[in-house]
Amino acid sequence: MESRIIGKLDFDAGRLTRELARVSEWPLSDAYEEYTVGYWRSLVLSNGTGEQGDGTIRGYPTERRLTPAGRSFAYIEELVRSHFDYARLKWSRLFVVRDGVLVPHRDYVEVAEPFIRLNIALKTTPDCLHSEDGTVFHMRPGEVWQLAVRNAHAGSALNGSERISLCLDFAAQDGDDAPLMRKRAGASQPEIVGRLPLSNSQLNTLNQLGGIINRDNIRDVIALLAKLHFRSEMTATEVLDWLIRICRNSGDEDLVDVAERYRRHCLGPRLLFDQFDFCK
């Protein structure tokens, strides 16, 4: 696993709780919703335009601008300004997920600019999990993770849980390994989640899903596979491979085409502003 913990933030619990309680007062973006099943939304705090609804990651030549929401969350902005390389920061967002999954995919494949992503869980539970390739882990509150999002990865908030995390995208510098976090002390070993191998019964059940899958429930099957990935020994890309296998078992060639196109969309290559339509 290339993702790693580079440090830890200590929060003022009272100030953070008060700010997180106001997240729902803002219109949350459903950008990249084709990668999600369940409730997964983002709140853009800063970008290249300062527009609240501009949430598609890309490079820009201007200075970064706070959105109206970004100006409203003073404590979170204070954390960012005091702990990270503020000059290299290009995008900042809050991710809010409730009883939802982020389907395995790769990020940054549609942009020419090199970025580095940090993610910090502000509110979480043990049922909020993340993965990279074949490893599943839990990001504990305050841990600063540098995520290898060019690798296949997924996320989840299972069993009705909720997670709010701070996502920071920085401009990478060629040949420069300068730290993005000013004080890197406090890094710890990751909390890796153990999983069980798929049993013969589970494998048989997955193969039998071809008998019921259709365009009405394909996203439900995607969610089932993605959730299974967090509890059983299945790599992130195998989630999408299983989707294609199940669709092939259905005998519906149009459905197979949807699954194959979806896998390519999630893992790349794709173009900026590309969106996937399950109805096509």
Q: What can be said about this structure in brief?
A:
By secondary structure, the chain is of the alpha+beta class. The protein is built from seven helices and eleven strands.
Could you describe the 3D structure shown?
- With 280 residues, this protein is of the alpha+beta class.
- The chain has two domains: 4-192, Jelly Rolls; 200-267, Proline Oxidase, Chain: A,  Domain 2 (Orthogonal Bundle), CATH 1.10.1720.
- Helices cover 27% and strands 27% of the residues.
- It is built from seven helices and eleven strands.
- It has helices at residues 13-20, 68-72, 74-83, 200-208, 218-231, 236-250, 253-267; strands at 4-8, 36-47, 65-66, 89-105, 115-123, 128-132, 135-138, 143-147, 153-157, 162-171, 191-192.
- Strands 1, 2, 3, 4, 5, 6, 7, 8, 9, 10 and 11 form an eleven-stranded antiparallel beta sheet that branches.
- Helix 5 (218-231) runs antiparallel to helix 6 (236-250) and helix 6 (236-250) runs antiparallel to helix 7 (253-267).
- The longest helix is centred in the last third of the chain and has 15 residues, at 236-250.
Give the tags.
280 residues, alpha+beta, Jelly Rolls, Proline Oxidase, Chain: A,  Domain 2, 2 domains, 11-stranded antiparallel β-sheet, 7 helices
Query: What is the CATH architecture descriptor of the largest domain?
Result: Sandwich
Radius of gyration: 19 Å
Helix content: 25-40%
- CATH names the topology of the largest domain as Jelly Rolls
Overall number of domains: 2
Termini separation comes to: 35 Å
CATH superfamily of the largest domain: B-lactam Antibiotic, Isopenicillin N Synthase, Chain
Query: How confident overall, as mean pLDDT?
Result: 94
How many strands in all? 11
Quick one: biggest sheet? 11 strands, antiparallel
Global shape: globular
Proportion of strand residues: 25-35%
What is the level 1 CATH name of the largest domain?
A: Mainly Beta
SS class:
alpha+beta
User: What is the ordering of alpha helices and beta strands?
Assistant: EHEEHHEEEEEEEEHHHH
Number of helices: 7
Unreliable stretches, pLDDT < 50, 5 or more residues? none
